[in-house]
Write a structure and sequence with these properties.
By secondary structure, the protein is α+β, with helices and mostly antiparallel strands. The protein folds into four domains: 98-183 and 218-401, Aminopeptidase; 410-520, no CATH class; 540-621 and 861-869, no CATH class; 626-855, Rossmann fold. 31% of the residues lie in helices and 18% in strands. The protein is built from 26 helices and 40 strands. The strands form ten sheets. It has an eight-stranded mixed β-sheet with strand order 1-2-4-3-5-10-6-8, sandwiched between helices. It has an eight-stranded mixed β-sheet with strand order 28-27-29-30-39-38-36-33, with helices on both faces. The protein has a six-stranded antiparallel β-sheet with strand order 25-20-24-21-26-40. β38 and β39 form a beta hairpin. α7 runs antiparallel to α15, α13 packs antiparallel against α15 (386-401) and α19 runs antiparallel to α20 (589-602). The longest helix is centred in the middle third of the chain and has 21 residues, at 364-384. The radius of gyration is 29 Å and the shape is globular. The N and C termini lie far apart (75 Å). Residues 1-33 have low confidence and may be disordered. The structure holds zinc ion. Zinc ion is lined by residues 141-142, 145, 249. It holds the Pfam family Peptidase_M14.
Length: 871
């Protein structure tokens, strides 16, 4: 397996400087391992992992893990949850026999160090000396990065079977938790597809999402916790309080052979400096291990930054994120060759790229080998310095609980918020992240402002106050350029995560200490408003449009078959004033049950009036037929599908076969998620390259394209999101023109939260605050408009940036974002920026749901409404 050329040993002086044994293969070849007692991966799978053109399947990998756990007293196999499709999510725990007997004690000590309140320095030192650091290794986070799954059996076998000083030291001093696949579903799909297409003309790479909903974004979910796999991993980290988390990935071939930390600037300032330095030092340790084994092309300080919590939960919880990215092979498992026969990648050595790679080929075996070294390099260091790792972890957590003058004292979410569901979701997110929340039991004053009892308080000085702070504060991303005056240095991902803005919750930052009597909130629950009495047969139920949970009520009413209207104007009833978009619901038993249930889930209050209001309204179409276009490997659509399922919106995916018939016969509204081009619809997947199971993604041709246009002209509603607005423009020659400069020197918004002005009288913007901020990512666009109704636009002047990073905000001044277009008998609504980006942007998600139901609805006069309500 390891047949590629090994670099000659380092000079003796360099060897002395190394604290680590040189290489895994040197030890593996030693006599002590002549007769392994546990089946080797090669014996089990029939080939060495990493062999050319071969991938072990997930089910076989699982069988191997169980076998090793059966035969070894150093390995435990557990299933700690179920994936999005119901597959088991396995965990391997690897350590010495004594440690495995002692896991409860180790866990208890680590938890004590994680929350050092009341712990003295001397006690902490003692505990650090007694316990064992916990090292969490996560593989197959992205299932097409196949080497990360294939390397795990080798690591496991070596730890379970090898009698060497290196392995003994690791087992005695570290508790290793291995998540052999963070996305087991995708790992199975990708491996099976690769094997089943062998010997055919079909492409070998699985073409679709490799996590049920969010595919590659499964590691962009580390603060909203939407997916079961994320929730499992967060629960695991909360339980164990690991000192190190290593993530195995693969990248492209343009750069080095492997990336390790330190990261590129910037660091999120909320990551403790000790955590950053632990990251840097362990990254360097891995680099040293790789270089000492003659593995060239090691690179740090490029591409990947240490900014967004969407990719890293552990860093706000005391553990470094050790990201390792190996370059990829060709078509998953075949040799990658340079195009010119020369060595692969950059050839200029640098301080962060000591040895350029000198070969013209790169194989899966090398990926497996590099990753293996990276894991043992890190493990050996943590084993050797176990007390320091635990003590530094304690120091990190000590910093977290010590009040500091340059940190806020607390965050306060006042009682009586506009959106009770949003408030619940914000608090639940924090609580899932182990943040302690208190509730005021009497009125109090902070920063000169009076707060009512029932307000929520999140103190900064607590073990995971850093996590709360990064989510609650406004991000100020540094203006980083490639060179002075040059183009922006691209962030690896996005730059903003301010939850109060994304969810629409008021949260005040309180700098100075204040006193308040509180109770600790054990489990955040939705508000429980009293449900009103029966309105009687001349009355109606009323629900305000302000909460982004309100569409959940609409979905429940649609399911119940309840007649539902939305007020087109403000009105008063029963001494209370109701905003445009208020739900006016028939006074039936079915409606009552649906509303009661949805109110319990969301905390949204329902009102009842004995006399139905006389106000102009829209009657929602019974059983509105919602279609969500399914694009192959379309991540924005996957997020949206998840959201629709959470809201229990009755919807169907729109697939290629639907375009062959009459779209209007099947759908009232079709949503085109971001990332769908005309070519994705017309050409789709090539049927010569993908078997019939992908027929849903085959192109629909020009006839299908014409059918989509006819769908709108014949009265259908089409919603185009983000960069799919360009597709809708092509479809119907919409009178809007992209307004933003394409040069990144001039305009750049790499995932930020921006200012917005809404026309809240427009049905698409019902329930929005006039100045609700919106998400704006790098593929989003603002428009000049020569027709249509502008629902939202950027302010004419002033600061466009609310959180994150923005260059050239003045180019947005007065430009349109959301526009409604009448096309024939139908409607197209174009959303220049994604209102439901990764479902983080939740307050603006109302816009999408409003538009879904608005298009197919019909209007009712004020005088007619009371009768219409009674059917
Ligand atoms: Zn990856």
């Amino acid at each position: 397996m390891r047949t590629w050329k090994r670099r000659a040993l380092l000079p003796a002086a360099a060897l002395l400087a190394l604290t680590l044994p040189l290489s895994s293969s040197l030890v593996l070849n030693s006599a002590a391992n002549a007769a392994p007692r546990i089946t080797t991966p090669e014996q089990f799978f029939g080939f060495p992992l990493g062999a050319e053109g071969k991938l072990a399947r997930w089910n076989d990998l699982m069988r191997y893990y169980k076998l090793v756990a059966d035969r070894s007293d150093k390995v435990l196999y557990q299933e700690i949850g179920k994936t999005a499709t119901g597959r088991p999510f396995p965990l391997l725990t690897v350590s010495s026999r004594d440690n495995l007997k002692n896991l409860d004690r180790i866990k208890e000590v680590n938890r004590r160090l994680a929350d050092p309140r009341g712990l003295t320095e001397a006690e902490a030192r003692k505990l650090a000396a007694q316990s064992k650091p916990v090292f969490l290794l996560e593989a197959a986070i992205h299932s097409t990065e196949v080497g990360t799954a294939q390397v795990i059996p080798n690591i496991l076998h070596r730890l379970a079977d090898e009698k060497s000083a290196t392995v003994s030291e690791i087992l005695e001093n570290v508790v290793l938790l291995i998540v052999p696949a963070q996305s087991p579903d995708g790992t199975e799909w990708v491996g099976d597809y690769f094997n089943e297409t062998a010997g055919t003309n079909y492409a070998r790479t699985y073409p679709d999402l490799y996590q049920k909903y969010i595919g590659h974004d499964d590691n962009r979910d580390w603060f909203m916790f939407t997916q079961p796999e994320t929730q499992i991993s967060v629960a695991l980290q909360n339980e164990w309080k690991p000192q190190v988390v290593q993530n195995l990935h693969q990248m492209g071939n343009a750069r080095g052979r492997i990336f390790v930390p330190p990261y590129l600037s910037p660091n999120d300032p909320n990551i403790d400096p000790i955590t950053v330095q632990q990251t840097n030092s362990l990254g360097m340790e891995i680099s040293r291990s790789l270089t000492a084994e003659g593995k060239k092309g090691v690179n740090w300080g490029s591409t990947y930054d240490y900014w967004t919590p969407s990719r890293q939960y552990m860093t706000y919880h005391g553990a470094p994120r050790i990201l390792v990215e190996a370059a990829s092979a060709q078509d998953l498992a075949y040799t990658y060759r340079s195009s010119d026969g020369g060595p692969i990648g950059p050839q200029e050595p640098d301080t962060n790229f000591i040895e350029p790679y000198d070969q013209s080929t790169w194989t899966l075996a090398q990926i497996v080998d590099y990753l293996d070294t990276s894991v043992f390099g890190a493990l050996s260091n943590v084993a050797k310095y176990r007390t320091e790792w635990l003590y530094n972890f304690y120091r990190t957590q000590r910093n977290a609980i010590d009040p500091s003058a340059d940190k806020p004292f607390a965050y306060v979410a006042p009682a009586g918020q506009r959106d009770p569901f949003a408030t619940y979701e914000l608090l639940k997110t924090l609580q899932t992240g182990d943040v302690e929340i208190e509730k005021a039991i009497s009125d109090f004053t902070a920063n000169g402002k009076r707060y009512e009892a029932g307000s929520w308080i999140i103190r900064y000085a607590q073990p995971y106050g850093r996590f709360a702070k990064t989510l609650l504060e406004t991000q100020d991303y540094p203006d980083l350029r490639e060179y002075p005056g040059g183009p922006p240095q691209n962030p690896y991902d996005v730059t903003a995560q301010t939850l109060p803005m994304l969810l629409g919750v008021q949260v005040d930052t309180i700098a100075k200490p204040f006193t308040v009597s509180t109770s600790r909130v054990k489990k955040v629950q939705p508000a429980a408003p009293a449900f009103p009495g029966d309105p009687g047969n001349r009355g109606a139920y009323l629900v305000g449009p302000e909460s982004y949970g309100a569409p959940m009520m609409i979905a429940a009413l649609q399911k119940a078959g309840a007649e539902t209207f939305r007020a087109s104007a403000e009105f008063s009833a029963g001494g209370r004033s109701y905003a445009p978009g208020t739900l006016i619901v028939e006074p039936s038993k079915a409606a009552r049950t649906a509303l009661q249930d949805a109110s319990r889930k969301t905390g949204i209050p329902v009102f009842s009036v004995g006399q139905a209001p006389r106000v102009a309204a829209e009657r929602l179409k019974d059983n509105t037929r919602v279609g969500l276009f399914r694009g192959v490997n379309n991540i924005p659509g996957g997020w949206m599908k998840w959201l629709f399922e959470q809201y229990d919106i009755g919807f169907k995916e729109v697939v290629a076969a639907d375009f062959a018939g009459d779209l209007n016969a099947k759908f009232d509204t079709i949503v085109l998620p971001a990332g769908i081009s005309r070519a994705d619809i017309v050409s789709g997947l090539n049927r010569d390259r993908y078997p019939a199971e992908w027929a849903w993604a085959y192109g629909v041709g020009e006839a299908g394209w014409a059918e989509l246009r006819k769908f709108v002209e014949d009265g259908g509603t089409l919603l185009a999101i983000g960069d799919s607005v360009a597709t809708a423009r092509q479809l119907a020659s919409l009178p809007i023109t992209p307004a933003l400069p394409t040069d990144e020197h001039v305009f750049f918004s790499p995932g930020s939260i921006l200012s917005q002005r809404f026309d809240t009288s427009d049905p698409v913007a019902w329930g929005m605050r006039p100045d609700t901020p919106v998400w704006f990512g790098e593929n989003d666009q603002a428009y000049d408009v020569e027709g249509g109704d502008v629902v939202s636009s950027f302010p004419q002047s002033g600061e466009q940036l609310q959180s994150g990073w923005l260059i050239g905000g003045e180019h947005l001044n007065g430009k349109a974002n959301i526009v409604k277009h009448q096309v024939g008998d139908g409607l197209i609504v174009t959303f220049g920026s994604e209102p439901t980006f990764r479902t983080w942007s939740r307050d603006p998600s109302k816009l999408l749901f409003n538009a879904i139901y608005h298009g197919p609805s019909t209007t009712v006069d004020a005088a007619e409404l009371p009768d219409a309500l009674r059917g």
